[in-house]
Amino acid sequence: MAHFVFFVLMFAGQVIGGLSTQKLPPSDNGNTLTILSIDGGGIRGIIPATVLDYLDQALKARDPNADLAHFFDVIGGSGTGALITALLATPSPLDPTRAAFTPAQIVDFYKNNGPHVFNSSRPGTGTQFDGEFLHNITRELFKDTRLSQTLTNVVIPTFDIKRQKPVIFSNYKVENYTYFNALMSDISISASAAPSLLPPYYFENDGVDFNLISGADLSMLSNELVNGNPTGATVSEVLRQNKYSKVIVLSLGTGTTETQQIFNAEMAATWNSFTWLFPLIIFLDRATTSMNEYYHGSLFRKPTINYLRIQEYELDPALSDMTDVTKQNMDGLEEAGKELLEEKVKKINLDSFCVEEGVATNAEALDRLADILYGERQHRLKQKSSEKGGRPFLETIRVPSDKTEANWAFQKNKVM
User: Where residue 235 falls among pLDDT bands split at 50, 70, 90?
Assistant: First the structure.
């Protein structure tokens, strides 16, 4: 009898482990949608990758057999955020049920390969870098993986410079428009082609030509000078398909510097020269960031939407260069990501545009989010098991207890 019980428990553990690595089942009755959104920002992608490493460890403490992609219905990214999205959502060649990269491995990926991508000795034609190394390593990593094969849905905005219109790659499109089912390598390279830094990228898929650069819900000018926040594009793409009674959004930035710069008389006197351009770029950065926060904050004020934005609003200017791949700078970006976790949750006041602090730290907010994501996933897996017929297998082999029931319960509390 003891041997039989041991066999049953061992088999149950294998079943649970198998369920853990499945793609996140859809929310029953369209109740809940979980979204991860990652900004652009070149080598500063180390910051959100470091923050995600904390969330990944928190989730693995609850379920070691699942990756970040197993907890989010959608992952969206622009620029460097698109590359992170692809690395998180593309299946590993060693195990197609697991992600190709963990966030910790993505940090190492940036540190090891950033100096080759942003190599000043390899300029492009009309761009600061030729992009050849990025193209080669991206193709090597993703091989023949296509958009339809990702572990979860992804949304990656780009811009077609020939047709002069946005092109948004998402899993929601591939069924009706097969030409969107492109190679993940082609999509990632296109989304990383920041104007003036890396050359536009051309490829053909299913008879359709694409001539793409990085794109987000920003203007072309802003795309070139400042970060791209894909949250609006990601949420809009998903909500076009279905309505959800509850939406959970985690949006991660790559840092923005604070400036007290004021146009004084001396600067005004040099208006006809280019000396005003650099401070203007800083102003554009802050203005665009504030307007994005205003747009997203207004959009997500509904009680059914939980919106957690983790962004460093006072990034050390010494760390602001998107192409500074010195060891000192990359280590500094990782440290900035770790320090960001200990900072209070911040948001921009939609009336004054001032940054305000919350009560909890970003790490505490992520711990709470991990509870919610884990609870939602377990709820869906249990629901899926029940739909296959009869009582869930787990109910036939376990001893009922309040604690067990609590572990299965869907946690409905808010992130903030």
Answer: confident
Tokens representing residue 337 in the block:
């990501």
Q: Are 78 and 57 in contact (CB under 8 A)?
A: no
Q: Where are the beta strands (DSSP E) in 96-164?
A: 153-160
Please state, as a whole number, how many other Cβ atoms lie within 10 Å of the Cβ of residue 102.
20
Write the single-letter amino acid at 210.
F
Both tokens of 378, joined, read 């377990």
Distance of CA 262 to the CA centre of its chain: 34
Distance, in Å, from the CA atom of 110 to the CA atom of 45, rounded to the nearest integer, reads 8
Across 324-388, the runs of DSSP E, i.e. the strands, are 344-348, 355-361
Higher per-residue pLDDT: 250 or 14: 250
Radius of gyration of the chain (CA): 22
Q: Cβ(414)–Cβ(376) under 8 Å?
A: no
Residues 6+ apart with CB under 8 A from 402: none
- The secondary structure element, H or E, covering residue 49 is helix 46-62
**3-state DSSP call for residue 99?**
strand
What is the rounded CA–CA span in Å between residue 123 and residue 129?
Answer: 4
**% helix / strand / coil in the chain, to the nearest 5?**
50, 15, 35
pLDDT of residue 216: 52
Global pTM reads 0.80
Half-sphere exposure of 269 toward its Cβ, with a 13 Å CA cutoff?
Answer: 3
Q: Are 74 and 37 in contact (CB under 8 A)?
A: no
Task: Say how many CA atoms lie within 13 Å of 82 toward its Cβ.
Answer: 32
pLDDT for 22 equals 61
Q: Does the CA dihedral 351-354-360-366 come out positive or negative?
A: positive
Encode pLDDT of 324-342 as tens digits.
999 999 999 999 999 999 9
Rounded-to-integer distance, Cα 397 and Cα 407, Å? 16
What count of Cα atoms within 13 Å lies in the side-chain half-sphere of residue 229? 25
Distance (Å, rounded) from C-alpha 23 to C-alpha 151?
Answer: 6
End-to-end Cα separation, the chain, in angstroms: 49
167: exposed, middle or buried (Cβ count in 10 Å: 0-12, 13-18, 19+): buried
In the predicted model, what is the mean pLDDT of residues 344-363?
78
Confidence of residue 141 (pLDDT cuts 50, 70, 90): very high
